C-alpha cells in the first residue's frame, strides 16, 4: 500500500474520541475499501472532488451514513473528504488501493450506450461469475451510469434470490431504473410507497421463488424466470424508453448451476435457458486469469456453451472487480437479507414506513410452500411446481417471511403457483391455544383474503 | 446542489404499497411516478 497524502499530518491518538472527524485525501483512481463493523455507523462528507460508490456519485458537503456494509469508495478525481466512525480507529487502519478495473467498466458502459443510440431495441446484458466476483456491483454501476447523462430507463433484472434488491430476498424481480439509485441503500432504493419520497420509488415486478438455493428446485427457479420473462417482454413492447435502454441482468454465483446429483456443472443448461427466454445478447464473465486447471476448464466449457447460442464477440471476459471483498461470507449475506426485509416493512431513516400488525384465525389462512427436491426423489414421479400445503404451527411459521399472492385463499395449488405477487408479510406470532396468527403487513388493513406462500427466509425483530 | 441526498429532510411517515398486478405492471410507465424532486436532480453539473 502506498503512503498517502493526509496520513502524515496525523498525530497518534491518545484518547479515542468516538466523535472525532478524520480528514482523508484520495488520489484520482484510488479506492477506499471500507468494511463497516457490524452495528456501527460510518459518516462520510465529501469536501471536494468526485467520489462514487457502485457508480453513484456522492454530492459535496452532504452527510452520508452507511451501516453494516462492505463498500469501496472510488475517487474519480482527487477527493478530500471527512469521515467519522467510532469503530475505525484512524486513517492508519484504512485500506486504500489503486482501482484497476474502473476503466473497463467505463468502456463497457460506453459500448452499451452506443448500442442504445443505434437501435430501438437496447442491449440486454447478463453478468455471470463466481461468488464475490463483483456481479452485483457491476450491475449496479452500469445501471447508475446509464441514467447519469441520458434519460434512459434500463430494466434491472435480479435473478439471484439470495439478494434483496428493491425487494425482500427470495424473489426474482425486474425493476426499471428511472431515477437515481439511493447511494446509502444496500437494496439500491425503495419500492413504491404511499407518498412522495425524496428520490422517486421504483416499481418492481416480483416472482416468488422462496427457497435459498437455486439447486433446491432448479425447475421451479427456471419456471419463475420464464414467467418473469413473459412480463418483461411485454413491458418492453409497451415502453419505448425501457426498450431502448435495454436490460442489465444479475445472476446467482456460477456454483448454483452445479448439479449435485452428478457432481458436475449441469453443462450450464440453466444459464442457456435464461439467455433464451430473456433474449440476452451480451454475456459478461467475471473471471481472472488462473493457472488452476479446473478453473480454466470450467470457464472454457462455459465459453463453448455460450458460443452455441450467442455471437462469440458478445461474450466478454472481464476481470473480477478490484473493489470487491472476497471475504463476504454467508453470515454477512444473511445480514444483508435481514436488512432488506427490515427495509421492506420499516423503510429507512429517511423514509420511515409504518407496517401494520393484523390478526387472523387459523381457519382464515391458507399457506403453501414450494417443493424442495432432493436426490432421492424420483424426478419423473414428481411435479416440481406443485405447492405443498403447510400446517399452521408455530415451529414452522414463527418469524417467517411469506409471499402473499393475488390468488384467492381457496384457489388450487396450480392457480396459486401461477399467481402474481401482491406483497410480503411477516408472521410475528402463532398462538396455537387461541388458534390465532399475527402477520406484519406493509399496507394497512386485514390480512388479505389471498393464498400465501411460505419462504425459507426468517426475520427476528 | 445535491438536494436529492439530504439526510435531514422531514421524516414523513408512510407505508409501502402492494405490488402492481402483472397486467398493470406491463402497461406501467415510470414517468407516472411522482417524487418530491424531479429526476433531473443530478448532484452536480
Ligand atoms: N467497488 C466494488 N466492486 C465490487 N465489489 C465491491 C465493491 N465495493 C464493495 N464490494 C463488495 O464486494 C463483495 C462482492 O461483490 P458483489 O456482491 O458484487 O459480488 P457478486 O459476484 O455479486 O457475489 P454473489 O455471487 O455472492 O452475489 C460485496 O460484499 C460488495 O459489497
Ligand atoms: Mg451478487
Automatic annotation (TrEMBL), chain A:
GO biological process: mRNA 3'-end processing; tRNA splicing, via endonucleolytic cleavage and ligation
GO-annotated molecular function: ATP binding; polynucleotide 5'-hydroxyl-kinase activity; RNA binding
Keywords for this protein: ATP-binding, mRNA processing, Nucleotide-binding, Nucleus
InterPro entries, per the entry: Clp1, Clp1/Grc3, Clp1_C, Clp1_C_sf, Clp1_N, Clp1_N_sf, CLP1_P, P-loop_NTPase
Any one Pfam family match given in the protein's UniProt record, by short name: CLP1_N
Keyword set includes rRNA processing: no
Residue span, Clp1 C-terminal domain: 353-461
Record-annotated Clp1 P-loop domain positions: 129-347
Domain Clp1 N-terminal: 25-118
Keyword set includes Nucleotide-binding: yes
Similarity remark: Belongs to the Clp1 family. Clp1 subfamily.
Function noted in UniProt: Required for endonucleolytic cleavage during polyadenylation-dependent pre-mRNA 3'-end formation.
Subunit organization: Component of a pre-mRNA cleavage factor complex. Interacts directly with PCF11.
Protein name: Polynucleotide 5'-hydroxyl-kinase GRC3
Record gene name: NDAI0E01090
